[in-house]
Amino acid sequence: MTGKNIHIIGGGLAGSEAAWQAARAGQSVVLHEMRPLRATEAHATDGLAELVCSNSLRSDDPETNAVGLLHEEMRRCDSLILACADAHQVPAGGALAVDREGFSAAVTKALEAEPLVEIRREEIDAWPPAEWANVIVATGPLTSPALAAAIRAKSGEESLAFFDAIAPIVHKDSIDFTVAWMQSRYDKAGPAGDTAAYVNCPMDKPQYDAFIAALLAGEKTEFKDWEKDTPYFEGCLPIEVMAERGPMTLAYGPMKPVGLLDPHKNARPYAVVQLRQDNALGTLYNIVGFQTKLKYAEQTRIFRMIPGLEKAEFARLGGIHRNTFLNSPKLLDAELRLKADPRLRFAGQVTGVEGYVESAAMGLLAGRFAAAEAQGAALPLPPPTTALGALLNHITGGHLNADLINAGNGSFQPMNVNFGLFPPIGGIDKRGRPSLRGNDRKKALSARARADLASWLGEARAAE
After folding, report:
1. Checking DSSP bridges between strand 314-316 and strand 29-33, what pairing results, if any?
2. Which class for 50: exposed (0-12), middle (13-18), buried (19 or more C-beta within 10 A)?
3. Which domain holds residue 437?
């Protein structure tokens, strides 16, 4: 390999996708992954693209869901992450969930077999050397402390941080199905046609009230002094933190019973706990929305209060770790380059996107941008009307408070892809309301995105 290598630091979802995209563009890549030489608090293996939290890539509906649209766009861009997810899918209603071990193994195997990718198992614990002219930092939310310190020193900006919690996983054969049952909300069929992808554990009001009380009283993990002011990401709150916001917060959140009927009682329960398949064999299920900072003994005691889980055996208990991300609207340009040192790009969750798919999407774009630059080409930006472009635009300048952030004020928080990031479509009716609303608006946004993505891919091929 020559001095024109693209060096990618981090073999997670974003780094793996970036390496694949750059290689597919004909560019040589060195992928640096510190595991297994240096472990993290959340990873359990040395596999590339290991999923450390949920096994779900969320909705696969490309018509009325922004993340489903992002799935489709990435598939059209020859995404390795989506190809491996599709190949190792497990039942999850309308969501795309995967066998996490099979998924990671497939990503690892594909990159090991790619002749333009060299994988080096080593930690990059300082600012990348000057001879690395084209670098993608995709170290994710668990960036090593030494590299994080180097980034802060170079950028002159203190990295922001939030806590991300991990949900527990239960052995299916320890669930009591004389109480629990299998059903997806509203019997909605998933990609494989299944309408009963989730395990449902019902609660009546006394059981729900007792469970909430136990969550509030349970012993939690103590934060260190330097961690105490770190905010949670609103989309991944620990369940006990949600409970602290009011006794009905969970009943209207992850434990809402709508769209479900308990066949044992022929009635809708007061509240319900859902579990989603976590591996291809169907032997492991994770408790949906139950991220937690409860101590291990408390988790076992409290979660066994859930009807149907009284004798639950846990394959993994929940946990909590600190995530770091950049103040991207201030630090990065439109091609994800660090303004203070443009030979470095950032990709993945460290840029301030939230979610597996969003992280991989930023890796996809960073890999393509870096390959084009190495080859002396100019790759056009994806249109902001596409899911890829809307997300990129948001984190690199389209954030609501971007002007305030650039002035040293305001705040930037992690964001999932959503239709609120897309430019408006349709007009305004006589009552001052959007003429397109609800699913009609979402379908119109999706149709426009697909058309604009096709044009962008054509422009990208012409540039190459």
Report:
1. unpaired
2. buried
3. 6-159+326-463
Condensed to tens digits (0 to 9), the pLDDT of residues 327-345 reads 888 889 999 999 999 999 9
Query: Residue 251 is part of a domain; what is its CATH number?
Result: 2.40.30.260
Residue 365 burial by Cβ neighbours in a 10 Å radius (0-12, 13-18, 19+): buried
Which pLDDT value is given to residue 298?
A: 96
Tokens of 230: 């770190």
Whole-angstrom CA distances from 256 to 196, 219, 248, 250 are: 17, 25, 10, 7
Asked if 141 and 134 count as a contact pair (C-beta separation under 8 A), the reply is: no
| Number of structural domains found in the chain | 2
Count Cβ atoms below 10 Å from residue 450 Cβ, excluding itself: 18
Contact assessment for residue 91 and residue 172, using Cβ atoms and an 8 Å cutoff: no
Token representation of residue 393: 């635009």
Which has more pLDDT, 152 or 410? 152
**Residue 8 CA: distances (Å) to CA of 83, 109, 117:** 21, 17, 10
Contact 69, 446 (CB under 8 A): yes
Q: Are 257 and 270 in contact (CB under 8 A)?
A: yes
Q: What pTM does this model have?
A: 0.80
- Report yes or no on 1 lying in a domain: no
User: What is the distance, to the nearest Å, from the Cα of residue 377 to the centroid of all Cα atoms in its chain?
Assistant: 30
State both tokens at 446.
Answer: 């999706």
Determine how many CB atoms are found less than 10 A away from the CB of residue 107.
28
Q: What is the CATH number of the domain that holds 348?
A: 3.50.50.60
Helix (H) or strand (E) holding 171, with range, is strand 169-171
With bands split at pLDDT 50, 70 and 90, how would you rate the model's confidence at 96? very high
**pLDDT tens, position by position, 190-219:** 766 678 889 999 999 999 999 999 999 999
Here the tokens at position 320 are 């909590």
